[in-house]
Amino acid sequence: MTKDDQIPFEAALVARTGPIEALLRQLLGDRPLSGEIARPQRLMEAMRHGVLNGGKRLRPFLVMESAALFSADGEAALRVAAALECVHCYSLIHDDLPAMDDDDLRRGQPTVHKAFDEATAILAGDALLALAFDIIADEATMLPAERRAALVLALARAAGAGGMVGGQMLDLEAERIRPDEAGIIRLQAMKTGALIRFACEAGAILAGAAAADRERLAEFGSAIGLAFQLADDLLDLTADAHQMGKATGKDAAAGKATLVALHGANWARDQLQGLVDQAHALLHPYGEDAVLLKQAAKFVAARNS
Amino acid sequence: MTKDDQIPFEAALVARTGPIEALLRQLLGDRPLSGEIARPQRLMEAMRHGVLNGGKRLRPFLVMESAALFSADGEAALRVAAALECVHCYSLIHDDLPAMDDDDLRRGQPTVHKAFDEATAILAGDALLALAFDIIADEATMLPAERRAALVLALARAAGAGGMVGGQMLDLEAERIRPDEAGIIRLQAMKTGALIRFACEAGAILAGAAAADRERLAEFGSAIGLAFQLADDLLDLTADAHQMGKATGKDAAAGKATLVALHGANWARDQLQGLVDQAHALLHPYGEDAVLLKQAAKFVAARNS
């Protein structure tokens, strides 16, 4: 990959963050919505701390680009993207808790339980998860109810016991019960893969695309989800804490089983190239319309922070 | 209230628990659903521990009875009832955590973080919240998509920052910032009231009832939610741990502001009667069809465990 390939993509990624930041800020405002009694200030501050933290907004980008591929309504896609980012950020808040990964820093800032306290961090995560479904189900997400319900279902399943949360559970257990290679792949497909898969599939659901297109985008999401995790494991091995804005080398120190630990960095780089090729092949039918999604696959595999 | 009033109600409550227990057990099974990768066994065990614990299933009962009042489909109501119980049980699991109420016992059994560990309890709660929206949004809940989306929205809003979780946040803060009477009422309307209000409103949404009926049932839910909390505060003052299956006297020991602490037990009993009268008046238009819901209001106000 040449550096030139990345320039338009990174510019596009940055361009997409403006509207998503603005919407997240609005959705996390202090004013109660219809049906709400009051939004406690400290809780809302903790939620904003956990969400409005300078994240790259990769998952929202994937929702918006996959939606654009099928000419879905951009405003609706933006709301689904914001909902997904709420789920992602809630998972980070809970993952950082002392009982879980016990991290003090996230993007160079104190984690929510450090900036506030543990109880507030638990509740802020819980409220963000509920908010995600609120955002999608709301009529303000100008989609037919059938599609809103389908998006709620797909997100709930990607986030729940059989997806992300299940993957976090397997990850906790991996320190006791060392998984084999198939176990590691399954763990990662759940822990980080499920939400990335949803991000890509969501565009097709939003647009009411054909089942074959929905499946193709979901497969694309699975491929780049795997790539994302491989790149993360490589980074944990090679990057320093300053570059990542969080503690690194923790997996190796914990003796945690990763594919990189199992097969080495060179193997991982070959695998990453294979996953990018596979992701590109899946998008072949969409031609030039999919150019940014193709670049996203390269970006995910090559990221250095 | 005579003892005779309660007999048919308690029998009806017990009769309703059979189907709800069976459905919850099925929904919390180990077999992954379509779109799920795997359901980690330890996570599912923790979720079952937190849900299949001999709860009275009052909220499910309210969903089913309010649905029956408008002749909604019983199977759909049962699924919405199960979803609500998942939200209620997740909130108890997180509430019992050391960083929150730090309770070791719930219904005489070890709490989830005691029977498993803190990280598993956090994840089990998270997964139950996601599962609730999964259950409602699923086409298996044989309702028009518009109603499934409306139920998701109402539940998300009742559970989130402007409802139950917001109330838990205010409750945490109440130990530092002692709320005034209006503050206590708001806290309780959120912490315990919002889900009970949803339970009663859900029946009207399920059935596609008129907006005025939906509002009336929601008001009924608010009244009995207040009564529920008043009765709880009275019990905390007067019952012993054995009767409750959990620690009691904690509010008084923590100097926690409750209406009972503010005005005394006799005032609270008068208030309870007033709330029951108000709840009954709201159901007046439905005549004999609402007899069990009316008895539920009395039950909530008079419960002794």
Automatic annotation (TrEMBL), chains A, B:
GO biological process: terpenoid biosynthetic process
Classification via Gene3D superfamilies: Farnesyl Diphosphate Synthase
Pfam families in the cross-refs: polyprenyl_synt
CC annotations in GO: cytoplasm
Cofactors (names): Mg(2+)
InterPro entries referenced in this protein's UniProt entry, alphabetically: Isoprenoid_synthase_dom_sf, Polyprenyl_synt, Polyprenyl_synt_CS, Prenyl_diphosphate_synthase
NCBIfam families for the chain: FPPsyn (NF045485)
Alphabetical list of PANTHER family matching this protein: FARNESYL DIPHOSPHATE SYNTHASE (PTHR43281:SF1)
Family classification: Belongs to the FPP/GGPP synthase family.
Entry protein name: Probable farnesyl diphosphate synthase
Species the sequence originates in: Mesorhizobium delmotii
Species classification: Bacteria, Pseudomonadati, Pseudomonadota, Alphaproteobacteria, Hyphomicrobiales
